[in-house]
Write a structure and sequence with these properties.
Formate dehydrogenase/DMSO reductase fold, about 0% strand, single chain, mainly alpha
Length: about 400
Amino acid sequence: MREFIKEFKKNTSRSFYIFNGILLLIIMWGFYNWGLALIEGPGITGSNDFVPWGLFLVGFVFFVGASAGATLIGLMIHAFSREDYKVLGIRAILIGLLSLLAAVLNLMMDVGQPIRAVLIPWVLHNMTSMLIYTSSTYFIFGGLFLAELFYALKIARGTATQTDEKIAKWLAIIAVPFALGILHAPHGALFAVVKARDYWHTPLLPPHFAVSALVTGTSFMILMAIVTSKIEKKELVSRGALEHMGGLLAFFITLNLFFDFYDIFVLKYSEEPEGIEILNLLTGRFVPFFILNFGGLFLALMVLLNKRGRSIRALTFVSCLSILAILAYRWDLVIGGQILPLLPGFPEIHYYPTIPEIAMEAGIIALFLFLYTLLTKILPMEEGSPKPIEAEIGIIKKWR
């Protein structure tokens, strides 16, 4: 263990400790406010009787989408034999697993009492609710990620057999249809089955959620590859791989804009009073998010279709813009869909996140980043990486 700590310190810069120290402070700030919420109740957040789903549900659907979209890398490696993607394999698994953790933490904070979230669906369940289905898939998807990580690490250490490699291959391939069709598309159905909300009640939402997940996951992986290369001062993936990922992102953005357009087109063309009202809301009070959603994705697509749109700077810009655009869509969908009064005569409804609510969300994001930076530091990320220390059995392995 001493040798491991000595080697860890030797290969760790001062900026690593400063960055993670800041993250730990944000994590403590967030979980302190969560403790206040557990003691004082949900009144310290901006949610209310009219808008019960607030910032936590926005974060929840965003991180579930990121988790589902990250499975694309494994598919590229094992189904399409993209050898240049291999270096991203374990990193994609970690991002998917940690995104799922962030999504569940958002859900637990929204529920109010964490024990309730833990008991769903094992004890607290309603078999007629969509929640009984979606909550069950989190356990399966988490187990799938852990199994993927186990076999991927065996391959990275050089201890995998041919059977292990086959299992790793099929787990990666199965993860994509499971993530998009079984895990995330039904989250769109959670909204789509609510007949009282005209903005939600559409069969387009399940596939829209799946496509948005691919945009988010691909953007995350491009940004991670570029940032990691900058930090480690080496080329993590080839320019060809980055350009290919940019092409995939352009395709997914095109599909996402298709669904975005028809969401609005149906509201306008149907001329239903509720639809016109939500459209006026999106282009009125919510216009900054509306512009960021449509304009951001359209601008990202135009950049990617440009000759210089696959450069490092362009891909960094496009990835950040796409993530923000999908966040804006999630905000419009979750918050905007609840703002309209269900009955005539109700006053205008507003929702604004409070400082404690923002602190809790910041704590979740900081925890995601902290665990990712730590795990990528101590785990082998690709074949030929140093072997980690198996401290559980007290065996210290030498670095290759």
